[in-house]
Amino acid sequence: MTTTYKFMLAALVVCATILLACNSKPKIQQSTEESGEEWIQLFNGKDLNDWTPKFTGYDLGVNYKNTFRVEDGLLRVSYDDWDEWNGEFGHLFYKDEFSHYRLRVEYRFVGPQLKNAPNWAFRNNGLMIHGQTAESMELDQAFPTSIEVQLLGGVTGQGERPTMNLCTPGTNVVMNGELIEPHTINSTAETQFDDKWVTVEAEVHGGDLIRHFVDGVEVLNYEKPQLDPRDPTYEKLLSADGNKMLTKGTISIQAEGHSTDFRKIELLVLDE
Fold this sequence. Notes:
- By secondary structure, the protein is mainly β.
- It is built from 3 helices and 17 strands.
- The strands form 2 sheets. Strands 1, 3, 4, 6, 10, 11, 13, 14, 15 and 17 form a 10-stranded antiparallel β-sheet that branches. A 7-stranded antiparallel β-sheet has the order 2-5-16-7-8-9-12, with no helix packed on it.
- The protein is globular, with a radius of gyration of 21 Å.
- The termini are far apart.
- Residues 1-34 have low confidence and may be disordered.
């Protein structure tokens, strides 16, 4: 084998290695780089700057039992410092409000559920969108009036439990031209079992359309998010002109009894 031939063969091996490395990037990273989209990192991977906690029965800003924390580059909802559940629902609010956007999150559930936490809260968290401000919540209010993009997990061998459902604390939506008043609407997503990482996305178009995605596949959509006249917060949150439609609001994540890790929370602002 000549020296020239050896050199050419080595060059080909190097090129092939580089191409393989490029193609092995996570899909999310490739999509962001190739599209040139400017995603806002709501969670910076270092601290909880720009986020504020609110727990039932506690003043705004009190991070009860250090539940929301950053460890190993993850935003964690942790119950390490709790003994048992006693109704202290928590939410962690981002500082800004948004109207038209894509919200992309990578999450997983970890460990057992906290003692005495509600059965329905097993492997349960949520992305609260179009929410009221943290400042406007009552001291003992359990959930912000909002549209909840529900995050659920399952356990192998214990049945199906789809993620990215819709819950409506203090709100209603429209589906197929009809006002939907039940609190929970299931998506068509598959169950995400055990402690795997899951990538989900909510696409929000103001007061018009909202779509839920799991790994890039649409699993639910609905329209016209609005305040529910049956809810105690209705009169307080109703706009001065009597418009009950929701076109923007806060974004928050939950703490309701099961530890959850988030390694990415990012947002892309869309044109109105």
